[in-house]
Each structure stands twice: as C-alpha cells, then as structure tokens.
Amino acid sequence: MKRNLGMLALIMAFWFTISFITNILGPLIPDIIHNFNLSDLAMAGFIPTSFFLAYAIMSIPAGLLIDRFGEKPVLFGGFLMPFIGTILFACMHTYPMLLASSFIIGLGMAMLQTVLNPLQRTVGGEENYAFVAELAQFMFGIASFLSPLVYTYLIRELDPVTYTAGKGFFIDLLADITPREMPWVSLYWVFALILLVMLIAVSVSRFPKIELKEDEKSGSKDSYLALFKQKYVWLFFLGIFCYVSTEQGTSIFMSTFLEQYHGVNPQTDGAQAVSYFWGLMTAGCLVGMVLLKLIDSKRLLQFSGVLTVVLLLSALFGNKEISLIAFPAIGFSISMMYSIVFSLALNSASQHHGSFAGILCSAIVGGAGGPMIVSTIADATSLRTGMLFILVFVGYITFIGFWARPLINNKTVKLKELFKRR
C-alpha cells in the first residue's frame, strides 16, 4: 500500500470534500428561512429533498457510467456538477436557484460516492480494506464537524455591522462578492474553490482500473425481480430509509429548534451543536468497532434505539442546557445504526448481494422524505411535534433488532460491512 499513499491521500481529500459540502444544511436552514422570507418549514424542507432525490436518482446510472466511460470521467463529472451548482447559487442567490443548486450538487455527489467505494478498495488493497474504510469514515466525520465551524467563522467575519476592510485578502474578496445581507452565501464560494482544486487534482491524476467485486456489481433484471418479491427486502429498505430520515431530520432542524424554543443563536451556538452532532457520530463509529466485537449486533441496535429515544425526548422537552447536550449526543447514539442494519440485511440474503446493496443504497431517499415529513407536520402543528415524529423512525429501526433473521455469516457485523458508505 506504501506506493499508493499519494492516491489514498487524494481519495481521503475527496471524502473530506463530499462531507464538507453535503452536511452543512442544518446551520443554513434558519438563514434560508429568514433571507428568503419562507412562509413555512416545508419550503425549507424542499432543499434537502431536492438534494437527496437527485442522489437517489443518480446512484444506479452512475454505476452504468463507470462501466461505459471508466473511473476518471465519472470522478471529474462528479466534481464538475457540484462546482457548477455552487457557482450558480453564489452568483444568483434566489430560492429557486438554491433548489436547483442542491439538485445539481446531489447528482454529482451520487456519482462520486458510487466510484469512490470500489476505488479505495482497489488502491488500498483488499487486505487493507477495513483500515482504509475506517480512515475514510474518519475524514468524512471530521469534515462534517468542521464545516459548521467554518460557517460560523465566515458569518462573524462578514457581519455587515462589524466588518471593516483590511481583515485579509480572502475575507475582503468574499465581502466584495457576497451580498452584505446574506453573508452565509460566502460558504458557496468556499465550496467552489475546494471543488476547483479537486477538479484540477482529478485532471492531473492517473487512477487504477476498478474491478468490481460481486457485492459491488449491479445484478440482472431477474435478480432485482427476485429480491422485490421478498418481504425482508422491503423491511430492510424501510430500515435504511428510517435511519437516513432520523439522521437528516435531526441534524437539519436541530438549529432551528434551538432558536425557536430556547433563543439560541443559530449562527454560533446552533451551528456548534450541529458540528458536535457530526463529531460525536464519528466518535461513535470508532467506539462501535470495539462494541461490535463484544456485543451481538442486534442487541447493540436495540440499545442504540432506546438511547436515541431518551436523548430525543430530552432534547425536545428539556431546558436549554439539556437540549444543547442531548441533540449532539444523538449523533453518537445513532452512529452504528446504518452499518448494523445494512449488514443485517446483506447477511439475511444468500444471493444477489450486489443488487440488494443497490436497493438498500437507494433508500437514502429517506434524506428527502424524513425532513419533508417533519417540516410538514411542524407547519400543521409545531416544530416540536414535527421532530417528535422522528421517534417513529427510531422505533422501527429498534424493532429491526428484534425481528431480523439470524446472520448467515457470523454473529457480529463484519468490519468490511461496518465501513460500507452510503
């Protein structure tokens, strides 16, 4: 693996970029509502919906593009589309353009994640798969932790009330090209700069030919039809859907809830809470590696579900101090759910693993459905009631720990499956 360290570092930079851009929506929602004068939360909920719908739509076509054109063109296209999307909104900062931008970014991110999983296995070698995947997970989490902090920094530096020229070339440049009343738009210029660097890196790099393993290939039409007839396929599909709904429904509306019910500044303490949410999720994944060697995965899923219920109720009905602790802690409690449900699903099928994995990955559309359900209920009642519906998602995930079929391969989730990225 030593001779491929440079390529591995580049792949880690790709993962960092993906996470840095895609997990910033939570802190932005209050600004979006305020600056675009949105009448309800459902209008704000359309933004993650447009992103995750594009993600679900593009996942399978991305695999076909890899087969036809190879890895490098798909990687380049995967970075080019978000670059175009961020530039469009940075230049034309309207609500319809933000929706279009989110959709375009989602298309590109789906392409990137489809090609990066097998690419990192090829570069790192099968024998180092778990280590490389763990490192990718770590980079993904670090970027999710840092992006809200960068947002807070830019808001503070570009605040029209306190900003004065001469703070530095980069800040002054952002101040010149960013609307004074919308300093958060500067984040899109930062995205564009990072994506431009990634496009240059892809252009000058040579990538190895990917040979897909059996569980990474899309199956035939008959394999999909056979799977669609199995009840457990739909049950596990719903499990992944509920997990992504829980993750996004919590992270996206957390800052807005803290602002509405506790008067927390969404640009500082609210953004910090979202940052800690992703940071604790990363820590939870590392702790999960140890726990999965000691505890049956289904029991661990049950415990995670119960803990998440307790934390969510504390966050929604506790005082300000409790909410500021409980909301980020949910990131830790749900950190192992996706990997466990995904692995339980694959280990419950004796064949067609590639097709089954594709079906499960398409359940990421929960990132569109979850926030939309929460925001719609919130508009009809209250945000607290809307977020209370997340308990339904968590309850279903917890129930999987009781009815899931015995694992075919072994008692605990394999490390290889633990680090499969969605």
From TrEMBL:
It comes from the Bacteria. The chain crosses the membrane at residues 7-29, 41-66, 73-95, 101-119, 131-154, 187-207, 232-253, 273-292, 299-318, 324-344, 356-374, 386-404. It is a multi-pass membrane protein. InterPro entries: MFS (IPR011701), MFS_dom (IPR020846), MFS_trans_sf (IPR036259), MFS_TsgA-like (IPR050375). Pfam families: MFS_1. Residues 7-413 form the Major facilitator superfamily (MFS) profile domain. This is Sugar MFS transporter.
